[in-house]
Queue: 2 jobs
Job 1
Amino acid sequence: QVQLVQSGDEVKMPGASVKVSCKASGYIFSEYYIHWVRLAPGQGLEWMGRVHPNNNGDKSFAQRFQGRVTMTCDTSITTAYMELSGLTADDTATYYCARNRIPVPGKYMDVWGKGTTVTVSP
Amino acid sequence: DIVMTQSALSLPVTPGEPASISCRSSQSLLNRNGYTYLDWYRQKPGQSPQLLIYLGSNRASGVPDRFSGSGSGTDFTLEISRVEAEDAGIYYCVQALQIPLTFGGGTKVEIK
């Protein structure tokens, strides 16, 4: 079945980096963008960015993460990665990957990973 | 960035009764291709978000037909014709017309 399996929860020190993986299976990896969305405690969903699996140059980010986030894909193992650097307490959140079909109208995300909780604490 | 506003933070609903969630965007979400780039998701506690409605009014696969999306331009509504206990959760609208995608603040549906 179609699924996105994310890596395990992480605890990081302020200033550190975290790299979250998202393993895709059950579909043609190259036919869907991978998006990253986070949910911080007490907050709403926040879109971070997206990456094209076949073209790591085709990516877009929310301005607030520019320069701090890296999104890549390894098509040989159908896995997407999101790395966030310069972590602060405000980055404590659950991070989700989700897919969106290429090229169809819209950017709706029909399959989501279960989430990776990143806790930033000294 | 396009600002998405869900005016109701919380919506208490009675099982069997209808429910309506509103969402407003700071600019029209009508694309030149004729599609409206507005989607709805629900997130239950401890679960991932689930796509309910895409492109304004299309139900996602497996979503019960008691859910419907409507609206145009800048004003949108998600309706549940007859609420069931399993419908509890936080509902988000999101605009996908422009990067960055932006979510509304969410409306928490609480079952009475």
Job 2
Amino acid sequence: KAGVTQTPRYLIKTRGQQVTLSCSPISGHRSVSWYQQTPGQGLQFLFEYFSETQRNKGNFPGRFSGRQFSNSRSEMNVSTLELGDSALYLCASSRTSGSSGGNIQYFGAGTRLSVL
Amino acid sequence: GIQVEQSPPDLILQEGANSTLRCNFSDSVNNLQWFHQNPWGQLINLFYIPSGTKQNGRLSATTVATERYSLLYISSSQTTDSGVYFCAAYNAGGTSYGKLTFGQGTILTVHP
């Protein structure tokens, strides 16, 4: 069974540009969560999608957005990039995200974004 | 929301030593996971352990949910165990869907 796939693995952008990152979850998983990892702030939750609906959102500005498609693949978009957006962006998938079993999260290898 | 604290922040060992990493959390959880982050940044699942005890080779974990802590044990450590270990948790009630809250991690260095 293929794991969580994130593309691209590396990106270099300049301030003011926008970027789109992609995440393909494990087959059968319907929940996709996104996280940002920086040396200063650690791992922080961005948002979660389930069946094409955003059900939870972290404390990030509106420049960070996402969506999920009917095949559960998800994309996140960052508009008007700032230097502080340089980070490792991680995506995780799980069968569910509720209180029952199946909410184990499996992570992709991440996309490392550098903003110059 | 839930708070997760890990200790110690850094741990330096000689190969063959044993170690215990601790994770304290501030509220009841129905998801608690331990991860090892490899040098390329990927989070590798070690345990899903909202309660009880599990073992996998030289690694084992115990979560005492009533006292809100979890422990990760590494026995006979090897240089390949080096890296950052994260504990993460959430309570899926209310608005916590899909949101793992991570501790700050323990940086483990194992010397030959």
